[in-house]
Structures are given as C-alpha cells and as structure tokens.
Amino acid sequence: MNTETTIDWESWEVEAPPPDFADRVMDAALSESHRSAAVRRPRRSGRWVGMLAAAAVAAGSLTVLAMIERQARRGQPPSIASKAAPSAPAPAAASAAGDVAGSSSADRVPPQAEHAAGTVVDRKLRDDVRARIVRPLQGQGVEQDPHTGLTVPSGSNGPSHNLSREYLQQRIREDFYPMAKVCYEGALAKQPELRGQIVIDFVIVGDAKVGGIVDQAKINDRTDVTDVTFLECIRESMLSMVFAPPDNGGWVTVTYPFKFSPDKEEAPRDQ
Amino acid sequence: MPLLRAVPSVGDPELPRETLEACRVQDPAAFRSFVLRYQHTVFALVSRIAGPGAQVQDLAQEVFLRAYRAFPSFDLDGAARPSTWLLTIAVRLSQNARKQAARAIAAPLTDAAEVRDSATPETERARRELGRAIAGAANELSDDQRAAFVLAEFHGMSLADIAAVLEIPEGTVKTRLFRARAHLRERLAAFQKEREKP
Question: What is the DSSP letter of A85?
C-alpha cells in the first residue's frame, strides 16, 4: 500500500499550550532579566543565607537601622531662574537611625504607586524609561545634592515628599531584597563569612506617565563592605528598581542602609 | 494538558517587522506577541521531538526564554526567519532533552499504553490509534531523522531551512528524510495490516 499518500500525519497529536502560557513565559523572562541585570555572575551558595537587611545584628533584632533620608535643598537653583518652579520646602535631612525626614505628606502613597509597585522591569526597560524622563530635563542643568553628592535635575520642580518611608520600604522589600540576596549569595561563594553594612544613596525621578525610576545610585562612605563586585551588584540592582513617581515632576533622594550577615537562618527582615 | 492537531506552519506570515524590532530590544508586549504567535508551533515541535508529557511545557518555556535572551543579537535582515531561528532553538533543546531522558530511563518515550475507550467513536478511535502508531514509529527514528521529518512534514520547512536548523548539508537532509519516510511507511504498513485483520 502507498502509506505515504494515505497517512493522516496530523493524527500524531501534540500537546497544546495552556491559556496562560504566554504570561508564564513573560513572568519568567522579566524576572530573569531583572536578576541578570543585578548579578553578572550569579552563583548560589548551598545554604540559605540570611540577609538581615536593615536589621541591627548587634543591637537587637528589631532595632531599626534602616533609615530613609529625604533630603531637600533650600530654594531653587539659580540655573532655573527662567523656569517657573515652585520653591522647594526645606525639610530637615534625616541622618539618624529610624528617623524619617519630611512632612506628614511624606506618608502619603500616591495612586501611581499602584502601577509602579510590583512591577519588575529589566535594565533595558529601565534605561528606556529613564531616557524618556531625563530627556526633557537635559539642558536644564544639574546640581549636587549636598548630603549624598548625587546630582539632581536643577530643571525639575525640586524635592518631592509623596513617597513615604513605608512605601519605599515595601518596594525595596518586594523587589530589591530578592536581587540583593542573589548578590550576597554570589559574594558569600567567595567569602563565606562576609558580613557588614552597605549604605546606598539613590535618587528617584519620574513623572505620572512613565512612573518613577532610580536615576542614580552610589555606595555611601558609611559602607564597610569592600567586595567591589558585591557592591556593584547592589548598586546595579538598585538602579533597576521602579517606584511611584515623585510628585510635581520632582525627585526624592534616599539613603538606605542594609546589614548583611550569614549567621541567621531566617527570612530577610526589616524594620 | 490539551491535545492539538493542527498547528501554524512556519510558512505562515511572520510577525510585522516593527514587532520583531521591538522584540530585539526585549519589549515585553512585543515579545508576548511573539510567544502567542509561535507557542503552538513550539509545543508541537517539542512534543514530537522530545516526546509528549509534562516536560513539553517546561521545554517550550525554555525555548522562549532562550529566544528572549538571544533576541538582541538576532539579525532581522539575516538569512534566518524568526520562525526558523526559533525552531532551531526548539529542535536543539528537544533533542538534548530526549537524549537526557533516554539516558535516564533507557526506555521508549512514546510507547504509551494503548487505551481503548468504548465510548469513543470508531473514527476517532482509529485516528488516535494511527496517531499513536505514527508516534511509536517516529520514536524509532534517529534523532536527526526524526527532526528532519517533523520539520518537513509538520512545519513546512524547506530542505535548505532544515539543513540550516540541523547544521547539515541539504543532501544529508534528503537522505535522512528518505530514510525516515521509508521507515515510517514500513512500520505503518504493518500497523495497517494488523488493523485489517478480522
């Protein structure tokens, strides 16, 4: 018989994708991109490592070490004299543990937080968003934040106060901790007893249309960890974070310390 | 997992260039469109080369993840169409998975137990039996014969495309296709004779 012409090859059944297959792929792809942006050479130690972020190991488990310093400057920079920017309030810069600077409005999480929170984007996306945000600011100059040394856009509307400490902690706990944990595991593979504090300064910019992104991040001098790869991993991780946008097209400067220790077999904890 | 008969062929139109360009910069919405466009094709290929089962979805997901990673270096103006490129990834992953499974269990992959359902209409039952027979016969092919046959028969690939996917000369593709079809003809003829017995 001529099987070639009579066989219905399509009788060979195959599996079909589930309805949510594309969503699963995208979740995995974006999650992977996020991790790879944070870790150049991901390595996993065989043990669970406790990243006691913002927890005071020596002073007590729940002692607040993490602090968020909202730093505002006084008045408007002279370089934007032609721009009708409102004068910036001058909240006291917080520098003590647990202290949060800013007015009561700082505890208000804007509606935009809903779409920004929980959104993990890869580095490329972040760069795209950043370019869209920064482009209008180009040519308007920057000035140096006196507390962090980071540059902030002098052409924007000044420091904002709509991102509360609780909101920032929540976002960092949700999206930054997993990345930082991978960074730490990679560092522990080289130095099993690595521990210490990393303090990172970063600036959030953005607007309501595109959300808030970390425009700059740098390791603060109070950091006592010296592993350059680990520090860069942490910095890159922070640069990939997204937040709700600062209100009125302004910026928020944050200083955030983390404690890392391999001692505790417990989940990451914060203040 | 649901079963599927017809799947899009690589001969179908590719995604618009602007979508593919967005995929190259790993735009999530564009890549999601890419997944939706080719997911059935990939599932079908993986099912037939690696064998059916729970691993199909895992392998298909890995195929797309590798494509996502590699998209920035994919040349839209190059010789390979996106579908051919994607199926190249799928073939390699499926063949590797099949080899690993063979090492692990050292047993036929698709030698599934025959299940007779008295409620199944005769024609549907016959079709399923034929499907199992094809799968069983194809399972006896070498990996490259099987891949060449699947790509040609189910995904409409040209000899040149198959040669590119399998990284073998076109002449070798012809030989493997000839041998694969000859083997399947022989085995399915035997199957038909068995079925025609009173």
Answer: P
pTM, 2 dp: 0.47
Say whether domain B13-102 belongs to CATH 1.10.1740.10. Answer: yes
Beta-bridge partners for B4: A14
CA distance A117 to B5: 41
Q: Which CATH class is domain B120-198?
A: mainly alpha
- Chain A nearest-CA residue for B41: A16
pLDDT value of residue A211:
73
Contact status of A11 with chain B (Cβ, < 8 Å): yes
Minimal Cα distance from A23: which residue of B? B32
> What's the pLDDT at A128?
65
Q: Which residues contact A30 (CB under 8 A, 6 or more apart)?
A: A120, A121, A122, B28
User: Chain A contact for B39, CB < 8 A?
Assistant: yes
Q: How many CB pairs under 8 A join A and B?
A: 118
Q: Which residue of B has its CA nearest to A15?
A: B3
**Mean model confidence pLDDT for chain A:** 62
Q: So where are chain B's domains?
A: 13-102, 120-198
**Conformational region of residue A137, where left means phi above 0, alpha means psi within -120 to 50, and beta covers everything else:** alpha
Q: Which two tokens stand for residue B149?
A: 């046959």
Structure tokens at A143: 């000035």
In chain A, residues with a C-beta closer than 8 Å to the C-beta of B64 are 25, 29
For the segment B120-179, what is each residue's pLDDT rounded down to a tens digit?
556 777 777 888 888 888 888 888 899 999 999 888 888 998 998 888 898 999 999 999
User: Letter for the amino acid at B143?
Assistant: D
Among residues B59, B66, B2, the alpha carbon closest in space to that of B34 is found at: B66
Q: Which among A10, A21, A26 is the nearest to B5, CB-wise?
A: A10
Residues 244-263 of A with CB under 8 A from B: none
Contacts of A13 in chain B (CB under 8 A): 3-5, 47, 52, 128, 131
Q: Which residues contact B94 (CB under 8 A, 6 or more apart)?
A: B45, B46, B49, B50, B59, B147
Helix, strand counts (H, E) of chain A: 7, 7
pLDDT at A86 over 70: no
Test the A interface: residue of B3, B5, B24, B48 with most A CBs within 10 Å:
B5
Q: Do A14 and B7 touch (CB under 8 A)?
A: yes
pLDDT 10s digits, B27-83: 888 999 999 999 999 999 999 998 888 889 999 999 999 999 899 988 888 878 888
Q: What is the pLDDT of residues A21-75, one digit of tens each?
A: 988 898 888 877 666 655 544 433 333 344 444 433 322 222 223 333 333 333 3
